[in-house]
Amino acid sequence: GAGVSQSPSNKVTEKGKDVELRCDPISGHTALYWYRQSLGQGLEFLIYFQGNSAPDKSGLPSDRFSAERTGGSVSTLTIQRTQQEDSAVYLCASSLGNTASNQPQHFGDGTRLSIL
Amino acid sequence: GNSVTQMEGPVTLSEEAFLTINCTYTATGYPSLFWYVQYPGEGLQLLLKATKADDKGSNKGFEATYRKETTSFHLEKGSVQVSDSAVYFCALRKGTGNQFYFGTGTSLTVIP
Fold first, then answer.
1. Residues of A in contact with B51 (CB under 8 A)
2. Structure-model confidence comparison of residues B83 and A40, the more confident one
3. Is the Cβ pair B96, A93 closer than 8 Å?
4. Chain B neighbours among A 56-115 (CB < 8 Å)?
5. A63 closest CA partner among A83, A84, A48, A49
6. Is-contact A104 A89, C-beta < 8 A?
7. Closest residue in B to A109 (Cα–Cα)
8. Given an 8 Å threshold on Cβ–Cβ distance, is A101 in contact with B32?
9. pLDDT tens digits along A29-85
10. Which among A35, A95, A106 has the least Cβ separation from residue B98?
11. How far apart are alpha carbons B24 and B78 in whole angstroms?
12. pLDDT tens-digit profile of B9-49?
């Protein structure tokens, strides 16, 4: 079956531009997560969505970062006025929700973002 | 709070050597524990999991046992191969809710 799909796989843009990253979770997964992985670093949690509940935005590094999840499925992560330190791989993951706490996350292949 | 601590890398081993990557956790309640692997140029993949104390997760020759008394979930493999070269992440999921907590990852390189 289809896994988590992210697009684009690579994005190169100039400093100051806005970027949108897309994530299609696995069908039926109510929880969706965004992480950032900088070169040689671990996973930095950004935000997660659970069904129709208010998202947990506690990991967003600045107000230039925002995310939406429309219809409980597809999510977009938007970075406004990009800076060079935003360069990283942005990973999306999905999982079954609260009733299945032993279920793992399933990750997409990520979007490699490079800010010139 | 909840957190995961992994041994720092990088780790370099010869083929067929024994591997241990240490992972300890701090958590409230009864978390589930996971090991993820990230091969070069790829996304994270679930390697194995354990959902309660004394459970042993296993996959591809790797094993990890959920030790509640020592709050540990160490990853082991008896004989590593070059193809095991990757970054390994330990993670926990709280017993309630959806939040996951990841370690910083341990890079493993296996040389022929």
1. 102
2. B83
3. no
4. 56, 91, 93, 95, 97-98, 101-110
5. A83
6. no
7. B43
8. yes
9. 988 999 999 876 778 889 989 888 888 898 899 999 999 998 878 999 999 999 999
10. A95
11. 20
12. 899 999 999 999 999 999 877 889 999 999 988 889 999 99
> What Cα–Cα distance (Å) separates residue A73 from each residue in A5, A23, A33?
12, 9, 12
Residue type, A90: Y
Q: What count of CB pairs under 8 Å joins A to B?
A: 55
Cα-flanking dihedrals φ and ψ of residue B82, to 5°?
-55, -35
pLDDT at A101: 61
Tell me the two tokens of residue A33. Answer: 């997560």
- Angle A27-A30-A32 from CA coordinates, rounded to 5°: 95
A71: CB partners within 8 A, 6+ apart: none
Asked whether the beta carbons of B73 and B35 are under 8 A apart, the reply is yes
How far CA A113 is from CA of B18, B49, B87, in Å, comes to 37, 30, 20
CA distances from A28 to A59, A113, B86, B97 (A): 25, 28, 30, 17
